């Protein structure tokens, strides 16, 4: 997939979604990541999610930091404006972009080096501010572009490709997002597309700060025995708490429900998150229970995936600031400039 | 070329010697002056003196006499010394003069230094509740003692009131001593405490306690305030408020900031003005967004994001904040994103002197970030220009798609200054620069994000969400070709970098142009100055002229330097560059950018953290010119 150029033409009978786009319209440039990189699977899941959600590609703004993960926005949604910012500080740029135009959808893509080290502060503050976005961390526990150094999410005791043992405790971005007030928190695995696509769909449709940590093994530097972020390790230790479907409001269907088995969570905009509980004791509506559940399973060596927490009635920074409905970047002097008369009155008050 | 730096303490004649004479009154000589003196209040930070001292200055202003106050304060909330210096100046000299004619010495900690600062024949006003030995005074200074603590203790029970009203009581006494009309002060109280009758009454009471004591117990002074009509329509405002208002008028909708002295009041004033002017009365919704970010890195990041997405955005900070922002500034320069940064400069480097003034971030802003960068800098001279230039900065940032710095400093930012009233032309449209619309894209206009279509180095951009299939591009800090495609090809890189230079040359034609102030007589000597140095410079030029030293003066208002700066330098054999930093940063920028022979540019540098004075400039330039003339004459003699 990585090195094969995409054909310019596609089959005329490719299925279109409700806004008239084929899946190909959601693709971007050819990926320059390593063949087999988990990040490409995440790009594919984003493409799938946006196609299924009938999002017009140009209504998405995709922003990233620096690193392997942050290169990926070039590889999906080619008709969207993208912004590859500086290392770790995508969240602030996204916040500004979002404040300028609340009408677009914001997709923040970051990596573990990006978000858990240099960008830890910005990650934290974007979560607590409730910036409406889908913030996806493509987490491989390693620095790929600089060839194999541990990142801050690498587990204590895990080994690098060169055999070095990591002695530092890991930063758990999901635990932090929960604590800091993110209103949609999930963890996925790049090797599990069936789980990842609805997780991303839910995040994009969420009305507050949505965070998904996606374990995405680095095939070049972190996919070996001794790594806790390798494909094999995550497959063996994956513990999904729930399976979710995302259903848009206008398509509400009620099938396949068994008492106590399925929970429909209606969100602000009328969409539904259908949660099928795999663990009967798991409640995605309880932030503190989610934190305790995760930590308990982490101690058991399990990587808990799925939708871990959601506040379906979440609001965002625009609500908190009470900004006007029209995008700020569309306002002109008539709405913004108080005018010469007001200035005269002000002058008079300063004498 | 050596720097010219006379000691700050060196005495030189004041601007208006006729109205400022030392005469003999009995045994002690005293300064006699009407509407032309410097009075300084020495207080303890946190003692509530600030509003009383400001009230004093405003009362004189209301009597039609220009004043120029300066806050001199420590980086501390409570307990350390603080000063408020008021220059009463019928001539309208708004820079600092240097020296003090009357000291209101309310801080025992700084007593000795405060006393030493007084001009011979000056006046010392102090709290005489506790007697001081004669050794604590000067024989050439007249002492006015008033038992402020005793008076306040007798009238007020609450300890805080005893402290706070002490300040109002001395304002009352000074009003009588100096001829300030108490009714004027009362009127100011009335405006300040409108609707708060209890506060109004207690303040008026304290004022009269001071007035009555002075009438009954104190002799008149040689310093007088006399009604005049010299203020006109000018307004009295601080530069930070003015810059914030300029951002409101200029259409800024997104502001992100992180608290740092002396810039915090820019963001706070922006919040205040937006709340006043930009809230929809029908819905209560705000037409602005302000984020107090977690740090300066995030502040500038928010501004970059908002600018990229088509909103006018700014941040306000000071030197250390600029240091933190530099990586993003480089990104905004190279990715070509409009960004406005208000830098209220303070004493550096590092934490330096956080509450003192300097013009020492010129080079770090002109070339902020790694690699080859050059940024647009604007240098307002007073609050009026802070307003104008802030609005202009937003236009320039959009037009040029680049960071624009408004370079003010603590002296303009945090001191109220008398200046021309704000003005706005309602027919003015914002210059949004080259933003390609959906219609233009639809009509088939070629869009290459980094393509120099118009030959001015400024490319066209599109905003996210504009068109379903056309005009999208990927913004990045890595190099690219004219169509924004990632490229590491040398020719693509060179095309970009040279186009950015061309854009910078275009900027020189768009920025506020320098202001020339020709000398009364033809001269080979020139002087270049900028920003808050302006009022002291104007006064110094007059004083130098009185000494027979004529200089053509050019006030820089922006970097890049327009052609007129090159012409000015070419027309003068020697040009003084007056600035408030150690390393002659503006001079270096002139030498570096214009290939000027450094020997022709004479440094005049003031950098002790206080605002530059007219006295300092006169001394520095005067001494240098006279020395050069003397050695020139000697040389002529020898050769003859």
Automatic annotation (TrEMBL), chain A:
Gene Ontology MF term list: oxidoreductase activity, acting on the aldehyde or oxo group of donors, iron-sulfur protein as acceptor; thiamine pyrophosphate binding
Domain Thiamine pyrophosphate enzyme TPP-binding: 66-214
Keyword Oxidoreductase: yes
UniProtKB keywords: Oxidoreductase
GO annotation, biological process: cellular respiration; small molecule metabolic process
SUPFAM superfamilies: Thiamin diphosphate-binding fold (THDP-binding)
Pfam families (UniProt xref): TPP_enzyme_C
InterPro entries documented for this protein: 2-oxoacid:Fd_oxidoreductase (IPR051457), THDP-binding (IPR029061), TPP_enzyme_TPP-bd (IPR011766)
Domain of life (superkingdom): Bacteria
Keyword Metal-binding set for record: no
PANTHER family hit by this protein: 2-OXOGLUTARATE OXIDOREDUCTASE SUBUNIT KORB-RELATED, BLR6744 PROTEIN
Name of this chain's protein: Putative 2-oxoacid:acceptor oxidoreductase, beta subunit
């Amino acid at each position: 997939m990585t090195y094969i150029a995409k054909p310019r033409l596609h089959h005329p009978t490719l299925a279109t979604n409700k806004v008239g786009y084929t899946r190909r319209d959601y693709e971007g440039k050819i990926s320059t990541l390593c063949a087999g990189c988990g990040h490409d699977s995440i790009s594919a899941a984003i493409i799938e999610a946006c196609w299924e959600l009938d999002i017009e590609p140009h209504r998405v703004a995709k922003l990233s930091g620096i690193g392997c993960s942050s290169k990926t926005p070039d590889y999906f949604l080619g008709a969207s404006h993208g912004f590859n910012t500086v290392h770790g500080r995508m969240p602030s740029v996204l916040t500004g972009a979002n404040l300028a135009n609340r009408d677009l959808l914001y997709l923040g893509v970051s990596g573990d080096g990006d978000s858990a080290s240099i960008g830890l502060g910005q990650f934290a503050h974007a979560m607590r501010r409730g910036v409406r976005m889908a913030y996806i961390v493509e987490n491989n526990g390693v620095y790929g572009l600089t060839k194999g150094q541990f990142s801050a999410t690498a587990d204590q005791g895990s080994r690098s490709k060169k055999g070095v043992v990591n002695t530092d405790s890991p930063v758990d971005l999901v635990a932090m997002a929960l604590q800091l007030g993110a209103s949609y928190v999930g963890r996925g695995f790049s090797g599990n597309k069936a789980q990842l696509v609805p997780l991303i769909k839910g995040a994009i449709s969420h009305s507050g700060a949505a965070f998904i940590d996606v374990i995405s093994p680095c095939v070049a530097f972190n996919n070996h025995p001794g790594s806790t972020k390798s494909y094999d390790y995550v497959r063996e230790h994956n513990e999904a708490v729930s399976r979710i479907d995302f259903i848009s409001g206008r398509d509400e269907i009620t099938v396949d429900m068994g008492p106590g088995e399925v929970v429909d969570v209606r969100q602000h905009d009328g969409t539904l998150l259908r949660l099928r509980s795999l663990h009967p004791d798991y409640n995605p509506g309880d932030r503190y229970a989610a934190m305790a559940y995760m930590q308990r399973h982490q101690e058991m060596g399990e990587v808990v995936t799925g939708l871990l927490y959601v506040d379906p009635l979440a609001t965002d920074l625009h609500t908190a600031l009470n900004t006007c409905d029209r995008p700020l970047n569309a306002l002109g002097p008539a709405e913004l400039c108080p005018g010469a008369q007001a200035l005269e009155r002000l002058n008079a008050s300063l004498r | 070329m050596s720097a010219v730096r006379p000691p700050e303490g060196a005495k030189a004649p004041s601007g208006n010697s006729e109205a400022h004479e030392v005469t003999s009154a009995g045994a002690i000589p005293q300064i006699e002056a009407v509407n032309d003196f410097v009075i300084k209040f020495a207080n303890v930070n946190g003692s509530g003196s600030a509003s009383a001292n400001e009230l004093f200055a405003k009362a004189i202003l209301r009597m039609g006499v220009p004043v120029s106050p300066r806050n001199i304060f420590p980086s501390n909330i409570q307990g350390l010394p603080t000063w408020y210096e008021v220059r009463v100046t019928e001539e309208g000299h708004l820079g600092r003069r240097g020296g003090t004619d009357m000291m209101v010495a309310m801080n025992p900690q700084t007593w000795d230094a405060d006393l030493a600062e007084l001009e011979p024949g000056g006046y010392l006003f102090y709290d005489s509740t506790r007697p001081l030995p004669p050794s604590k005074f000067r024989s050439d200074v007249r002492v006015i003692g008033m038992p402020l603590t005793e008076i306040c203790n007798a009238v007020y029970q609450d300890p805080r009131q005893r402290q706070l009203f002490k300040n109002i009581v001395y304002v009352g006494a000074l009003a009588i001593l100096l001829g300030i009309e108490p009714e004027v002060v009362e009127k100011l109280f009335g405006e300040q405490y409108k609707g708060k009758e209890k506060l109004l009454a207690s303040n008026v009471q304290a004022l009269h306690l001071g007035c009555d004591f002075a009438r009954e117990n104190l002799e008149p002074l040689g310093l007088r305030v006399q009604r005049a009509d010299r203020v006109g329509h000018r307004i009295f405002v601080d530069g930070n408020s003015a810059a914030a208002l300029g951002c409101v008028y200029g259409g800024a909708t997104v502001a992100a900031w992180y608290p740092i002295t002396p810039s915090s009041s820019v963001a706070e004033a922006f919040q205040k003005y937006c709340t006043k002017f930009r809230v929809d009365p029908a819905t209560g919704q705000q037409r602005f967004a302000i984020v107090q970010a977690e740090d300066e890195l995030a502040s500038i990041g928010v501004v970059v994001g908002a600018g990229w997405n088509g909103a006018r955005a700014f941040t306000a900070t000071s030197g250390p904040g600029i240091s933190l922002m530099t990586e993003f500034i480089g990104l905004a320069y190279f990715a070509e994103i409009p960004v406005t940064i208000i830098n209220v400069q303070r004493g550096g480097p590092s934490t330096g002197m956080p509450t003192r003034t300097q013009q020492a971030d010129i080079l770090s802003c002109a070339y902020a970030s790694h690699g080859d960068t050059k940024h647009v800098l604007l240098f307002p001279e007073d609050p009026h220009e802070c307003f104008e230039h802030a609005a202009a900065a937003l236009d320039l940032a959009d037009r040029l798609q680049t960071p624009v710095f408004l370079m003010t400093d603590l002296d303009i930012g945090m001191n109220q200054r008398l200046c021309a009233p704000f003005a706005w032309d309602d027919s003015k449209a914002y210059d949004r620069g080259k933003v390609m619309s959906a219609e233009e894209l639809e009509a088939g206009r070629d869009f290459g994000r980094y393509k120099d279509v118009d030959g001015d180095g400024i490319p066209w951009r599109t905003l996210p969400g504009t068109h379903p299939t056309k005009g999208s591009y990927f913004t990045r800090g890595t190099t690219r070709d004219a169509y924004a495609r990632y490229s590491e090809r040398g020719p693509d890189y060179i095309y970009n970098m040279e186009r950015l230079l061309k854009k910078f040359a275009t900027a020189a034609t768009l920025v506020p142009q320098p202001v020339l102030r020709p000398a009364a007589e033809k001269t080979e000597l020139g002087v270049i100055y900028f920003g808050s140095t302006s009022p002291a410079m104007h006064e110094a030029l007059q004083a130098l002229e009185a000494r027979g030293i004529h200089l053509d003066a050019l006030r820089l208002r922006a970097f890049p330097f327009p052609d007129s700066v090159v012409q000015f330098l070419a027309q003068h054999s020697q040009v003084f560059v007056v600035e408030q930093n150690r390393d002659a940063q503006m001079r270096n920028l002139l030498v570096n950018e214009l290939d000027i022979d450094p020997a022709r540019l004479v440094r005049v540098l003031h950098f002790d953290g206080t605002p530059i004075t007219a006295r300092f400039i006169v001394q520095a330039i005067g001494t240098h010119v006279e020395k050069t003339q003397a050695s020139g004459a000697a040389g002529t003699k020898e050769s003859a």
